[in-house]
Design a protein that fits this description.
The protein has helices at residues 2-41, 54-59, 70-74, 89-99, 111-122, 133-140, and strands at 63-66, 82-83, 103-107, 127-132. It is of the alpha/beta class and 145 residues long.
């Protein structure tokens, strides 16, 4: 009799744990879907134009603007890129407008370059967020300095 009670308790506990596990997995999937949808809404902060061909922009005279700090820039960057820290970008907007070429922005992760891209687009400059400087390097087959 005691064995049946213990068996029933263990069985119910295992069933409860299984149900909780399944619920947790379902909740995680829902949160992942929600997070994915939210990231879509907040994509202005990260890399946006996955389909934009950076090589094509470069062939049209595009320039790469690295918006990291000078210290970060000096640790590695795409050859030929120009370092304009994000906080100094507004002072360079007129110069970039005069050049009238596409701008590819990059930084360490794509967050600051996303902000820079939006600033440039808001004043009519064709701009693409390239994401991290290293991914821009890989996509354009440029070497690092």
């Amino acid at each position: 009799m005691l064995n049946r009670i213990i068996y029933a308790i263990v069985y119910n506990c295992v069933t409860a744990i299984t149900v909780l596990f399944c619920f947790a997995v379902q909740l995680c999937n829902q949160n992942l879907n929600h997070l994915t949808n939210t990231m879509g809404l907040l994509s202005f902060l990260g890399k946006q134009e996955e389909s934009q061909d950076l090589k094509e922009l470069m062939s049209r005279g595009g320039i790469i603007i690295d918006v990291r700090t000078p210290r970060e820039f000096n640790t590695g960057h795409v050859t030929g890129s120009k370092n304009i820290p994000l906080d100094a970008l507004p002072a360079s907007i007129n110069e970039l407008k005069i050049k009238n070429v596409p701008v590819i922005t990059c930084c360490a992760s794509g967050m600051r370059s996303g902000i820079a891209t939006n600033q440039l687009k808001s004043v009519g400059i064709e701009s693409v967020n390239g994401g991290s400087w290293y991914s821009v390097k890989l996509e354009t087959n440029e070497s690092c300095e």
